[in-house]
Write a structure and sequence with these properties.
With 203 residues, the protein is an alpha/beta fold. The chain contains eight helices and seven strands; from the N terminus they run αββαβααβαβαβαβα. The protein has helices at residues 16-32, 59-65, 77-80, 83-90, 104-115, 130-144, 162-167, 188-201, and strands at residues 36-37, 48-52, 71-76, 95-97, 119-122, 148-154, 173-176. Strands 1-7-6-2-5-3-4 form a seven-stranded mixed beta sheet, with helices on both faces. Helix 1 crosses helix 2 and helix 5 runs parallel beside helix 6. It is globular, with a radius of gyration of 16 Å. The N and C termini lie far apart (35 Å).
């Protein structure tokens, strides 16, 4: 599913499939996993970069369940090679990224998400390629002037496999911080330093 300006963003615009998936993820994270979260500080409208620490495959599920806006994530390419996973990821207009850390196409697509006034989810503490992800996030902040919403997940950990992590009942806690606003001329060190510090203070 390609991203377009007509694509659903807020819950009032979601398709039947998107509503169903959100309900499923909410029920799974809240009742099966015993997850708790503070009210989201993601702006109700406009572009935003949601930056969260990365401890397990539960992380994006918690972020989705706790928000009423579509979150487009940067996702490792191999997840898109699984047909059933690709269909799910397409519902959030997520972006496949090659693990070599030099996927310019994905970065430009991420910029478009923000230009369209949407929410982009990034895990700067881990993921596809940590250094390149952090540099890409700083570039996106400067390009879009979008606020960065820090978030922190505790009480969860990655098991031996994704499946074992999904099945193992944990009690994750998701906390949101105050959105950070940067000038367009802010350098990468300032953006990354302030973001990582804000995430750490939520622990």
């Amino acid at each position: 599913m390609g991203l377009s300006s007509a694509a659903a963003d807020q819950a009032t615009e979601w398709s039947f499939t998107q509503r169903g998936l959100h309900t499923l993820l909410y029920s799974y994270t809240r009742f099966y996993q015993g997850g708790h979260w503070e009210p989201s500080s993601v702006p109700e409208t406009g572009p935003a970069i949601l930056a969260c620490n990365h401890v397990s495959v539960l992380d994006p599920l918690l972020l989705v369940a706790s928000n009423q806006r579509v979150i487009s994530f940067l996702v490792a390419q191999e997840y898109y090679e699984k047909a059933w996973m690709r269909r799910l990821l397409d519902q959030s207009y997520s972006i496949p990224v090659r693990r070599n850390g030099h996927d310019v196409r994905a970065l430009l697509q991420a910029r478009r998400v923000l230009e369209d006034g949407r929410v982009l989810g990034i895990f700067p503490e881990g993921g596809i390629n940590r250094d390149q992800t952090r540099k890409g996030m700083a570039w996106l902040v400067r390009e879009s002037a979008a606020p960065v919403v820090p978030a922190h997940i505790g009480g969860a950990c990655q098991g031996k496999s994704d499946l074992s992590t999904w099945l193992h009942r944990q009690r994750p806690l998701l906390r949101y911080g105050v959105p950070l606003h940067f000038h367009r001329d802010a350098d990468a060190a300032e953006v990354l330093g302030a973001t990582m510090s804000a995430i750490a203070t939520l622990a």
